Amino acid sequence: MAKTTDDKKYGAEQIQVLEGLEPVRKRPGMYIGGTGAEGLHHLIWEIVDNGIDEALAGYADTVTVKLLADGGVQVFDNGRGIPTDIHSKTGKSTVETVLTVLHAGGKFGEGGYKVSGGLHGVGSSVVNALSERLHVKVYRDGKVFEQDYAKGAPLADLKVTGKSTSTGTEITFWPDFTIMEKNDWNYQIILDRLRHAAYLTKGIKTSLEVEATGVIYGFYFEGGIQSYVKHLNIGKEVVDDDIFYIDKTVNDTQVEIAMQYTDAYTEQIIPFANNVPNPEGGSHLTGFRSALTRVINDYAHKQGLLKEKEENLSGEDCREGLTAVILVKLPDPQFEGQTKGKLGNPEIRGYVEQVLSEYMNYYMEEHPQIARKIVGKALLSARARKAARAARENIIRKGVLEGASMPGKLSDCSSKDPAASELYLVEGDSAGGSAKSGRDSKTQAILPLRGKVLNVERARLDKMLANNEILNITKALGVGIEDSFDISGLRYHRIIIMTDADVDGSHISTLLLTFFFRYMKPVIDGGHMYLAKPPLFELVRPGRKNPVFIYDESELDIVLDAEIARRKKEGLKIIGGNEDGSENNSERYKQAGFIEQKRYKGLGEMDAEQLFETTMNPEKRVLVQVKVEDAEKADAIFNKLMGTEVELRKNFITARAKFVKDLDI
Predict the structure, then answer these.
(1) Cβ(479)–Cβ(465) under 8 Å?
(2) Per DSSP, what are the bridge partners of residue 567?
(3) Are residues 520 and 547 in the same domain?
């Protein structure tokens, strides 16, 4: 990438010092959001963001991440390199200043960066403070500079170690696991972040290498966020092949928007500020929504598609099926929270509104066929919304969604404390009866579900509210739905899906998870969603006392091997086996001292006591908490598995068929 002519200005004087590095090691959560997996990966983001900032400023075109075999991470960018001269305020090299002084960086004042996604100089010093070791290598001014640190403290001064015609910065760090709780890197999370970076910065190449395997994965997208929208809409039927795209600068702020309508019933709008994802939205998202709703309504009235006396289309109507990426680049982003979840700059709302209104008005006038399709989709959504509202009001009028009128099938718990209460969504009346008989009635509520619930991926709210199973779940939870949804009304802080350990059970679980992901995602985000794990096998001992329950196929061999080894060591008789001493799978459980092996195919095969002891007893049960680590990927998978595109689902299943063992159909 060609260097711009003013890179001479990027020197020691452009690195301003606001305060020293102080309580990072004592209170890491204040700087990286926590010390678990999210905080651990945030260390990488801090260094990567610095490289992206160099690309945004026009000085770099490559950012690479390498996961070292010994647990370290190496991040390189081919930007200008951190300045190496002595800083006037600290008396240390600027490299050392950036790495040891909090709020020291090129993102304050003039001459450093016009646009930055990094934390204003916090990032590098925080990573250094939370690393057991850190090594920095700078390529600049025809030389190579290097320095080592331990837990934030320099081990020696910055030294020249060689010559080079290249420029750039390479930081290698090993997290301090006396502070960080999680000690393994998630390859997929890092890969997705680098893919986002490549989508959001035209012309930049990002890559991830795993030293242990030699695998290298790289990204480069000439189309930028237009390519991103195309990627998000894979498998969806689009209203038009064209992707609406604008790129406009207003008062030093660049506003870039790409969007396309699909046949989906949900929206997917992803906002970014200076390449940093803002999952909680902010002023740019507010401006986008406001302008979109106004432009579509104005066009609908002007063209007579919406009568003068008719109620305006709502924002939800106008956004149904919309996939959009909003990217703003601004000199001084004001993020709410250290992890930058929400953009706070109030002026950005006006900039986004101005740009989208002007260009979308022009686009709709110039493309009347597409405009009419967009308005038509919104009108269909409005009619469905009105039908759903009527259905909901009818339901509310009858008291169906009120707490005083619980579903007839619900066996509620006596506790009124949501934190102590849990709701089991149980497949089938038979298993529901066993669960009701065996449960702890103080804290465990049971709601049996008959058959397979509605696939909400293909249904609007009016159809959902006509489905008894969906309605019963909504009533039992007490949170309402859609615009009446309120998480504070949640009656149970653990919602546990309990289905048979077979294909049908998995399908029911997927249908339920689709409902919660699409219409009650805060329940999942709040950590309230679980999957019960019933046993696959019961190994029965002589006398039928103390049976052993096995929850995974792989666990069966481990238990049998351990029991056979124990019996041999204790000199107990080993029953069975072939003459040559070999063993076959059909008789190994006998050799392990068990007289019977039972394979459970359904919850109904267990009586109430067994069901409680194996699947519901808090002291013994196995629960799997449902989390959404990547909403974008979850959206794509639900669309593939539960959407209308049969070919996509077929390909998804075929590609993974080789990993399935002992499929029970």
Answers:
(1) no
(2) none
(3) no
Q: What is the token pair recorded at 663?
A: 């499929």
Contacting residues for 455 by C-beta, under 8 A, at least 6 apart: 511, 514, 642
Domain-ending residue, one of 219, 252, 282: 219
Helix (H) or strand (E) holding 434: helix 429-438
Residue 395 lies in a domain: no
Amino acid at 435: A
CATH label of the domain that carries residue 74: 3.30.565.10
Residue 237 annotated as catalytic: no
Whether 122 and 59 map to the same domain: the answer is: yes
Residue with tokens 């669960």: 435
Cβ 111 vs Cβ 14: under 8 Å? yes
Identify whether 157 is a catalytic site residue: no
210 and 280 part of one domain: no
Q: How do residues 423-446 score in pLDDT, each as one tens digit?
A: 999 998 888 899 999 999 999 999
In the annotation, is 176 catalytic? Answer: no
Choose, from 13, 502, 613, 645, the residue flagged as catalytic: 502
Domain shared by 124 and 78, yes or no? yes
User: What is the Cα–Cα distance from 22 to 31, expressed in whole angstroms?
Assistant: 11
Which pLDDT band, with edges at 50, 70 and 90, does 464 fall under? Answer: confident
Query: Which of 157, 186, 219 lies at the terminal end of a domain, its last residue?
Result: 219
CATH code where residue 358 lies: 3.30.230.10
Beta sheet of 548-550, edge-to-edge order: 548-550, 537-540, 596-599
Q: Which of 77, 256, 500, 538 is catalytic?
A: 500
Domain that holds residue 134: 7-219
From 53, 320, 412, 427, the catalytic residue: 427
Same domain, 346 and 493: no
Q: Are residues 491 and 508 in the same domain?
A: yes
pLDDT in tens, 322-348: 999 999 999 888 888 656 688 999 999
In this structure, are 120 and 14 located in the same domain? yes
Q: What is the per-residue burial (b if ≥16 Cβ within 10 Å, else e) of 235-257?
A: bbebbeeebbbbbbebeebbbbb
Cβ pair 138, 84 in contact under 8 A: yes
The total of structural domains in the chain comes to 4
Please indicate, yes or no, if residue 403 is contained in any of the structural domains: no
The predicted-structure confidence for 506-528, as pLDDT tens digits, reads as follows 888 888 998 998 889 999 999 99
Q: What is the DSSP letter of 4?
A: P
Residues 188 and 295 in one domain: no
Of 659, 532, 657, nearest in space to 606 by CA: 532
Dist CA 655 CA 570 (whole Å)? 47
Q: DSSP character for 86?
A: B
> Is 0.85 topped by the overall pTM?
no
> 288 lies in a domain?
yes
The pLDDT of 55-82, averaged and rounded, is: 94
Angle, to 10 degrees, between the axis of helix 646-656 and the axis of helix 631-642?
110
Angstrom distance (rounded) from CA 424 to CA 504: 18
417 is catalytic: no
Radius of gyration of the chain (CA): 29
Question: How far is residue 479's CA from residue 482's CA, in Å, rounded to a whole number?
Answer: 10
- Over residues 599-640, the pLDDT tens digits come to 887 888 888 998 998 999 999 898 999 988 766 666 666 666
- Give the list of residues 6+ apart from residue 371 with CB closer than 8 angstroms, or none: 299, 303, 363, 364, 365
The rounded distance, in Å, linking the Cα atoms of 336 and 355 is 24
Query: CATH number of the domain that 440 lies in?
Result: 3.40.50.670
Is residue 619 one of the residues assigned to a domain?
no
